[in-house]
Design brief:
It is a single chain. By secondary structure, the chain is an alpha/beta fold. The chain has two domains: 162 residues, Peroxisomal Thiolase, Chain A, domain 1 (3-Layer(aba) Sandwich), CATH 3.40.47.10; 168 residues, Thiolase/Chalcone synthase (Peroxisomal Thiolase, Chain A, domain 1). It is built from ten helices and 15 strands. A six-stranded mixed beta sheet has the order 6-5-7-8-2-15, with helices on both faces. Strands 1-9-14-13-12 form a five-stranded mixed beta sheet, sandwiched between helices. The chain has a two-stranded antiparallel ribbon with strand order 3-4. Helix 7 packs parallel to helix 8. The longest helix has 23 residues. It is globular. The structure holds oxa(dethia)-CoA. Oxa(dethia)-CoA binds next to helix 2, helix 6, helix 7 and strand 13.
């Protein structure tokens, strides 16, 4: 039974239709901002940033780059990885749309030459990738489409106050994408269970004020770090437990726990609380910082490159972020080659 206020679902019959991971693509802006660059501007130290977050560098896109540019690159890379030229739909997860209207996904579909497929955005902040994957899996298993490109693209440099040491040291720009296709739950790569939840009582713990809330002055992103930290550990561990239960997997059997890359200490605390072997928790935050919705596909690609993620590994993705929102997904890792580019 899912916990109150949270929804989980599983594909417990192996012959059932399922969404299957078929491709993985990523894209990062070329410019790296090292801790030393920030120490020169802010009242902070390399030691504080590394010890409190695990971050050594993050990427920042140039002014001429849009969220949609990064999304298109990552999406094209995921299609290449899947060996596909067309898909049946596009779902984009982003917290940093280039403009309030329209959604970014239709233009991404157009620029990628995908035709007039259904395309829309999902706004679930750092949980956006898992939410978008769950929506895409629903479209596939209900027979609406046979494949979906799920893209997560973020340009936090557009919403972060460069002089706020509480957020400027943490967040970075980047994009990641996956192709999901229709298959069966028996296949490697099949998404076997999802758990999603939200708690709007914490809506103001991570937020960017609207025009009415703050008519004058810049409207920057803000985060109540310590409060969010505690909720993140609690909810990612609980949500992961629910998908493990749905799959009948023990924590020790998890080959790769891939949490949202918010903070190295949060990742270790979640693994510890669950009883997942610490070496099996993927922590790739050092090079790219917290890229919000894009962090899970970027972490997947990094873990694949280092061999931490291998075909057949029991893999659990788990995310937490603004809303507050959280979500987890379970799959066995398929045989695939990720495609990466820099922009
Ligand atoms: O991605 C969406 C979800 N996000 C998360 O899950 C993030 C959750 N939160 C965090 O990762 C951590 O709370 C932070 C990294 C944001 C902060 O780390 P913390 O260990 O929770 O520190 P804190 O906020 O309790 O602050 C401790 C001290 C404070 O000083 P005082 O009050 O003790 O004098 C802060 O002012 O550290 C100070 N501080 C800094 N010092 C140097 C805060 N930021 C910095 C900084 N450099 N960049």
């Amino acid at each position: 039974m899912p916990a109150a206020g949270s929804t989980s679902s599983s594909r417990d019959g192996l012959g059932l239709p399922a969404a299957v991971l078929a491709g993985l693509g990523t894209c990062l802006p070329v410019t790296e901002i090292h801790n030393a660059d920030l120490v020169a501007l802010l009242d902070t130290t390399d030691e504080w940033i590394r010890s409190r977050t695990g971050i050594a560098a993050r990427r920042r896109a140039g002014d001429e780059v849009s969220m949609r540019d990064l999304a298109c690159e990552a999406g094209a890379n995921a299609l290449r990885s899947a060996g596909l030229e067309t898909v049946g739909g596009v779902v984009l997860a982003t917290t940093t749309p280039d403009r309030p209207c329209p959604a970014g996904a239709p233009e991404i579909a157009h620029r990628l030459g995908l035709g007039q497929v259904p395309a829309f955005d999902v706004a679930a902040v750092c949980s956006g990738f898992v939410y978008a994957a769950a929506v895409a899996a629903g479209l596939i298993t209900s027979g609406v489409v046979d494949s979906v490109l799920v893209v997560a693209s973020e340009l936090y440099s557009r919403i972060i106050d460069p002089m706020d040491r509480g957020t400027a040291v943490i967040f970075g720009d980047g994009a990641g994408a996956v192709v999901l296709r229709r298959g069966t739950a028996a296949e490697q790569g099949a998404l076997l269970a999802f758990d999603l939840g939200a708690d709007g009582s914490g809506h103001d713990l991570i937020h960017v004020p609207g025009e009415r809330e703050q008519p004058d002055g810049p409207r920057w992103f803000s985060m109540a770090g310590r409060k969010v930290y505690l909720r993140a550990v609690e909810q990612m561990a609980a949500s992961t437990s629910r998908v493990l239960k749905d799959c009948g997997w023990s924590p020790e059997a998890v080959g790769a726990l891939v949490p949202h890359q918010a903070n190295g200490r949060i990742i270790q605390a979640v693994a510890e609380r669950l009883g997942v072997p610490p070496g099996n928790a993927v922590c790739e935050i050092a090079r790219v910082g917290n890229t919000s919705a894009a962090s899970i596909p970027l972490a997947l690609a990094a873990a694949l490159a280092t061999g931490q993620l291998a075909p057949g590994a029991r893999t659990v993705l788990t995310a937490f972020g603004g809303g507050l929102s959280w979500g987890s997904a379970a799959l066995t890792w398929p045989q695939l080659r990720a495609v990466h580019s820099e922009f």
